[in-house]
Every structure is written in structure tokens, then in C-alpha cells.
Amino acid sequence: MWISGALDGFRIGMGLTLNVTASNNNYYAPLLLSVFSIEYN
């Protein structure tokens, strides 16, 4: 189940990355990484 959750998170993350400016990516990147680490653990 964690695989599907990680894939869903990846899709959401890609959507956010495409919809925010480069400066905002610096804010979202650590947040997405923390979400991925939670999914994998």
C-alpha cells in the first residue's frame, strides 16, 4: 500500500511543482521530501 501512496504523493508533488514559481519550489521541496520519507517508513 505504501507504494501506491508514494506514487499518489509523487503525482501531487509534480502538480505542485508545475503550478508554483521557482522560488516557491524551495518551500515545497523539503515538504515533499518529508512526506516521501514518512511514506517509506
A few lines on this structure:
This is Protein CrcA. It comes from Xenorhabdus bovienii (Xenorhabdus nematophila subsp. bovienii). This protein is an all-alpha fold and 41 residues long.
- From the spread of the alpha carbons, the general shape counts as flat
| Number of separate domains | 1
Helix content: over 70%
Question: What is the typical, i.e. mean, pLDDT?
Answer: 69
Structural class: mainly alpha
How much of the sequence lies in strands comes to under 5%
Number of helices: 2
Main beta-sheet annotation: none
Distance between the termini: 12 Å
Q: What's the SSE pattern?
A: HH
Q: Whole-number radius of gyration?
A: 11 Å
* Uncertain parts: none
Instruction: Find the count of extended strands (DSSP E, 2+ residues).
Output: 0
Write the layout of secondary structure elements.
Layout: H1 2-19, H2 22-40
What brief labels describe this structure?
single chain; mainly alpha; Protein CrcA
Description:
The structure is a single chain. With 41 residues, the chain is mainly alpha-helical. It has one domain. It is 90% helix and 0% strand. It has two helices and no strands. The protein has helices at residues 2-19, 22-40. α1 packs antiparallel against α2 (22-40). The longest helix has 19 residues, at 22-40. It is flat, with a radius of gyration of 11 Å. The model has no long low-confidence stretch (mean pLDDT 69).
